[in-house]
Structure formats: C-alpha cells, structure tokens
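Q: Can I see a sequence and its folded structure?
A: Here is a first one.
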Amino acid sequence: MDAVFNLSCSTRPTVTSTSTLAAAAGVGYDDGKDRISALPEDLLYDVVSRLPIRDAVHTTTLSNRWRDIWSSAPLVLFDQDIDIDPGPKRVSVVDSVLVSHRGPFRSVDLFSCDSKDHEPELARWTRILAERGVQDLVFIRPRVTVDMALPAAILRCDKLCRLHLGFWEFPDTTNLSNGVPNFPKLRELKVFGILMADGDLDRMLSSSPALEKLALDMSHRPPKHVRLLGQNLKCVISYGTIAVEVAVVEAPCMPGATRPVGNLSLF
C-alpha cells in the first residue's frame, strides 16, 4: 500500500526555467539551420509544454510554423512563473492564457485569484478548465480565509486525475443533475481549508471510482459525518479535524487500523 504521499500544496510542473530554445542548438551547430522547427509536430508540442509559460507563449512569434504550436500543445501553466506581482495584472495574464489556449490542459496550478473583484474571471476559468479537459489542477487561494465560493463548473472537470483545492467554499452538490459531480479518472484528491456542507464530500467520493489517495483538512467547519468509500481507495490522511464521525463504508484496499503520523492520521 502507498501509505504516505506528498502533502505539499503543489507539485512543480515538469518545466524548466534555466534552459532556452537557443541552447538546444548545441555546440558545433553554427550553420544557421533551424533544426528545432524541422522536428515532428508531436515533439514540438512536447518541447513547448516543458517551457515556462512566458517562453512558451513567445514561441508563437518565431515563425509561421510555430504560430499555432503553443495554442495546440498540452498546456502546462504554473501561474507563479509569471513574472508579475500577484494582483489584477497577473490575474489578467492568466485569464488571457486560459482563454486563448485551445487545449487540452495537462497541468494548471492557480494561486492568483484572491479577491471578490475577480469573481467574473473565476467563473470563466472554471468553465474553461472543464471544457478543455484539465487533467491536473491545483487551485489554491493565497489568503488563508474562506470567503469565496468555487463555481459549480469545477465539478464538471471529468478528465481530472489529480485535484488540490485550498481555502474555498465548496459548491453545493445537493441539487446537481446530469451526472455532476463526475470524476471517473480522479486518483488523488487533497482539500484543505475548504468549507463543505454535510454530504458534499460523500458525493465527491462516490463520483470518483478510481480515487486512490485522499488528504483532508476541514478544520474550518468540519462536516458531521464522512463516509469513506471507494474500490481503489488506499490511503486517507487527515490533518486536524476531518469530521465528527468517520465511517469506512466500502473501501476494500484500505488498511484495517488507524495509525497516527505526527498530527496526521491514516485511516
């Protein structure tokens, strides 16, 4: 059993900020030929996906061949790579990136949305994330307060494999229809500083049949009851308060005992 997994807020995306496209020419290749542009399109997509977002966007100005590469390559966006102080300007840049990229979205880490003034962008971002099939999403407010609600569109991100949420009020799942929430591919879920009504976490778990790892810190306002269920659920880590009552309902891969790990508990 994979008993312990990374509890950090974010896993650094697989991009490099130390290399440049110019460096790829290598020593001894000074004949002026553009060997990178001659690569197959699939390789160009992979190259662009591994660049910091500023450099990736700049590739659209290199030539006609490169113009559409970035907007079609799987998006990897870590908004803290954007060299602008957090605030309205960074939110505007993130908004422009998400709107202009055609998808798919491989990995998106968002830490910039911290004001009720940005609620229009928040609604647009969650809708776009769902439409363009985000696979790996970290969506955390930098301020440790819970006074903004996540739009229900976040529950339509049915391509997610990994989801980390921090310091949001969770959407009400009581009266949702059309199979929402639905996370058939979700394997890892971390929620901390999240306000959830009774039953919301249960619905998340029941809609995530592939879930293997679950980390929870719901000490702001813990639900009264949590039902742990999932045919593939192997590891549950709680930090602080998870709920008044926790019941392991149907989780055949879970260990049979509870063991403390510092301030954490494995159920």
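Q: Show me another, different protein.
A: A second, unrelated one:
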Amino acid sequence: MPCDRHAAIRVPDASSQAVRRPSDGLLWTRLAKEKRPGLTREAIVDAAITLADAEGLDAVSIRRVAAALNTRPMSLYSHIQRKDDLFELMTDEAIADIIVPDPLSADWREALWTIAQRTRAVALRHPWIMKARGSWPRLGPNAMRHMEQSLTALAGLDIDRRRKICILRAVDTYTVGHIVTELMEQVMPRREGRSAAEQQQLMQGYLRTLVDTGDFPRIADLGPDLPLLTDHGEAQQRFDEGLEWVLAGIAASLAELPPPTRHPLRRPRADAVEQTSTVEQTSTADLGRPDETGAEEPIRQ
C-alpha cells in the first residue's frame, strides 16, 4: 500500500467530533444528566487537556484546572467526583479524534491502516494519553464508537468473532508499542541533557568499542550499517513498514484457514458407494437417498 495515503489522514482539532453525551456504564452512569449553568464538564475537560498537553499528566490536578478556569476547586466537584474520572473523560475526549470520518474503506487492511495511523497521530499529539489509559477496555462514548468502527472494518471478513478481536488486539498492540517507543526516544536525550544527535554519537562510540573486542561477530558483520542498531531512522517510515508487515502477516494467516463449510454434506456418488464394504454401504444409505428425479437429497442435520 502506497505511502501517499498519509495525505488522506487528517486528524481534526481536538474540538471536533467529540461526543458529549454520557453513556451507560461505570463512570458514565454516575455523570449528572442535567446541564448546570455556568461552569460545564466540557470546559473542565478541555482545560485539563490543555494543561496535560503543555506540562504532562502529572500537572493535572483539580486545583490547577480550577485555576485555569478562574474558579474555586470545590466548584469542579459538582461535575467530577475524583481526579481519576477526569483522566477518563480526558482520554475519551482525545479518542474522538481517532474515529475516521465516513466513509470507512471497505478494504479491511486499508481501514485498519487508517485507524492505526490516526491512533498514532492522536497519541503523539497528546502523549499523556498513554499514561492515562488505566483500566481497559474503555467504555466512554467515543471509545465505544472507536470499537464499533474497528469491528466494522472487519465486518466483511468471513472469520469467527474471536479471530476478529485477536486481529484488532494485534494491530493495537503494535501501534501502542511503537508509540511508546517513539515517546521514549523523544524523552531520553532530554533526561540526559543531550541532543538526540549527541546521544546517537555517544551510543555509536560505545558500540564500536564492543565490536573491537571480537565478542560480537554478527554485530561486527554489519560493518557500515552498524548505526542502524541505534539510529532508528524516520519514525513515520518505521511505523508504516511495521504496520504493513503486521497486516500482511494477518492476511497471510487468514489465507491459510480452511474455508468454512457453507453447504450441507451430500451422499457420495453411486459408483463410489458400490466400492465400499457392506457395512459402509448400509451407513451411507442411511444418510441420504435419491429423490424421484434421480437427484441426490441433502443430508438432514
């Protein structure tokens, strides 16, 4: 699949596509149904997201959010009972941007590719979402829409429901793992007080020292390509290549599955029955018989 598909991936601003109504289940059943005048839950969540984007999830507290809204901390508790609820609301708000605008591609690989790309884009824009995932699965309205769309992407596959869930988990595991790796790569040089280039140069020097010992012949065989071990290259390209391999592997495994039985078994041909033993002829005759026109009648199951 060509890489120019990125031109079609447009992750909207955080203010668009969010579903505001609470749904049934856990936190969502505890949310107040009435609209209170003045301060709104939406404003609280938006302020918390802005704070988390700027300073990280650890910076989000009821007191800090209240200060950003120029209100008293106690006023927030009229809308949100605890900080964990706020984190879940923030996460569900961010998930809204993962949802692909209609129409979703009818090709399951293309559809999952697009969903994974949007997941990565949203997570990199809101790095705190990886830390705020907490309990799983998510049951907020946008999380449910995301799950519904993911299952819709696989609706055309003639496989059992368990395999569909396993496919979604495999793609999600790869996507989340890659995102976490990217975020770690961004943070590590800053923690050491170095630039990414300086960190890369330091690791390369150490690798050459190890290779010179002669204890790592396979690594030494890399020769001029030794930097590939530590220089992971352009993140988008790496993500695309890995995602293609994951989807191609899934497609190959599905092609090896035995075709599902769509028709009832029918009685063997008469000449084949004649070659069987008496016992086999008797058991076969019991399974089905020709009708008056000579056509074989399907086995009744």
